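Methods: holo model generation. Sequences were used as deposited, without trimming of termini or removal of tags, and paired with ligand SMILES retrieved from the corresponding compound records. Each pair was processed once, and we did not select among multiple samples. The sequence and zinc ion SMILES for this entry were:
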Amino acid sequence: MGANRDLPTKVCAVCGREFSWRKKWEKVWDEVKYCSDRCRKTRQTVNDSGNVKS
Ligand SMILES: [Zn+2]
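and the model returned the structure below.
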């Protein structure tokens, strides 16, 4: 029959990479915008002042 891996994907709002559905996101998938905690934290830092300081 073919691969049984038809997982949904999204594009990370921070790094722009495509990432796949994970089991840990099964209840919050609609809210997931970032591929990782690292990107999520980066985003929060950006939102704080509106500018990226790195
Ligand atoms: Zn990312």
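Residues 10-49 form one domain.
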